[in-house]
Amino acid sequence: MTDKPWGGRFAEKTDQAVEQFTSSVAVDRQLAKCDIQGSIAHCRMLARQKIISDQEATAIIEGLEAIEKDIASGTFIFSDSLEDVHMNIEAALSERIGPTAGKLHTGRSRNDQVAVDVRLWLREESRRTIEGIKALRRAIVAAAKDNIDVIMPGYTHLQRAQPVRLAHHLMAYYEMFSRDARRFKDGMRRINVMPLGSAALAGTTYPLDRDYTASLLGFDAVSANSMDAVSDRDFVIEFLASASICMMHFSRLAEELVIWSSSEFGFITFSDAFATGSSIMPQKKNPDIPELVRGKTGRVYGALVALLTTMKALPLCYNRDMQEDKPPLFDAVQTLTACIDICTRMFDNFSVNHEAMRQAAGSGFLNATDLADYLVGKGLPFRDAHACAGKAVAVAIEKGCELQALALDELKQFSELFEKDVYHFLDLEQVADKRDTYGGTSRNGVLSRIKEAEKEIGQA
What we know:
By secondary structure, the protein is mainly α. The protein is 60% helix and 5% strand. It contains 19 helices and 6 strands. It has helices at 16-22, 25-28, 32-48, 54-73, 85-97, 110-146, 166-191, 210-217, 226-231, 234-260, 288-311, 326-346, 354-361, 368-377, 382-399, 408-412, 422-425, 428-433, 443-459; strands at residues 151-156, 159-165, 193-194, 221-222, 268-270, 350-352. The model has no long low-confidence stretch (mean pLDDT 95).
């Protein structure tokens, strides 16, 4: 007979290589606090239902609380031979209080035990993620407010397209990360479902009060199907999907910051504290922080694909394959948390080259659409106006000047509708501020959205 809690029907000891291969304690020890939290709630419920005595419950709870202190202090020793965090804690409890420890597992299995642990852990991490994104959104809004009067080129196909306010560009990321926060918040509804009482797969014969356990642990609902409850990792996959989308947003932001900080663009300069140098080229100042953020996106994508692949062909109910859910989840959460923090700090660690942005916005015929819009305002159909503006651009390219540098008589070659007021129409600020529909880049529109955003963050 073995010394395992499940060893009753086994005649041989587990091979040491098998113990090492199957052990998950090096990873799932992160769940220790949640495991104890779930066990205490389960114990209180057992006592309330008279399944164990109040005295037994007191001994179990005091033992678990003492173990939690040992784990927190770093004096607790985890053993691979005990497979996982649950059995390590149970064995330690048995050493402390004796046979009464064995009563804690009444009416539950490690299958529903690990499910509740992961849900408790991920619920807290989701809250932290939402709060972190809130701080990031606040930093974006502050940067937008500080740069409300900076005009820059807006791009399509990475080609200069139309002038926009830098504040408007930054607030686009505010919208992205706001959607991320809402996704994580919505995902909490699927996370916050209590699986305890499902036992191994079929429920239990004991008169458990699952609603009471759920209330102790702060769950909003109780799982409705025991087979689904122990084999469900949708909530983990959903979190990883939300994390992947969030990292995609970080990667897009990082890409732009890398480009903007290049000598070719010169739109921003990172502070020395947020840049690195080269071991061979003394002049280099590298944007390693956004580059690493961009690179770490792949790790989070990988976590999502790894778990989807693990789960894609598993029959009901629990299978040991599911032990592999935690390494990608833990790594993705750690990576996402680090990126949220460093990117929030990054907004205070780069300066904007206002003049470089303005010069870029003022060249390349970014006001060509406005030249066409001017003619539309004079009654010309847009397609005809577009053709006139295109001809004007061709002449300006040939002369090596911008549209506003063309003389009025030159513009009249394309349409007699052009008058002196066209030059005011082509002014950079005018080009931006005429786009005053809700969601546009006008100064008033952007300021209005910033005020809305400040209110949203305050209420979140």
